[in-house]
Amino acid sequence: MSYVEIMTWAIGILLVAAALLTVARIVTGPSVLDRVVGSDVLVSIVVCALGAQTALVEGKSTMPLLITLSLIGFMGSVAVARFVARDRDYPVDFDEPEEVEEEWP
Predict the structure, then answer these.
(1) I need a labelling partner for 22 at 20 to 30 A (CA). Which of 40, 55, 76, 104 fits?
(2) By three-state DSSP, how is residue 59 classified?
(3) What does the pLDDT look like over 14-51, one tens digit per residue?
(4) Alpha helix locations (H) across the chain?
């Protein structure tokens, strides 16, 4: 076995292990944010795998796919972060009724 074949197998095994651990985190994540972070990490692992494949094959045909996946992963993370930040700015307590103070002239 040559050095390139050994590195290819090592990279493949590490990426598969990372993907399996990430899928386990997505399945068992206690909150929605854990699952969103897990899916973002999974997209990053796919981008890394495609980058490694591109480097090994020396092809340029996967570059648009890499850019598209990176953009989708980034936009998804930003959208979820904005949604969570907006949700935390206005906390709602459903247990207690809201008291309205009236001003008398």
Answers:
(1) 55
(2) coil
(3) 999 999 999 999 999 888 888 888 999 999 999 999 99
(4) 3-28, 32-57, 63-89
For residue 93, count other CB atoms closer than 10 A to its CB: 7
How buried is residue 53: exposed, middle or buried, by Cβ count under 10 Å (0-12/13-18/19+)? Answer: middle
- For 96, the 3-state DSSP assignment is coil
DSSP state of 90: S
Q: CA 70, CA 46: separation in Å to the nearest integer? A: 10
Structure token digits, residue 6: 């050994």
Per-residue pLDDT reduced to its tens digit, 54-85: 888 877 788 888 899 999 988 988 888 788 77
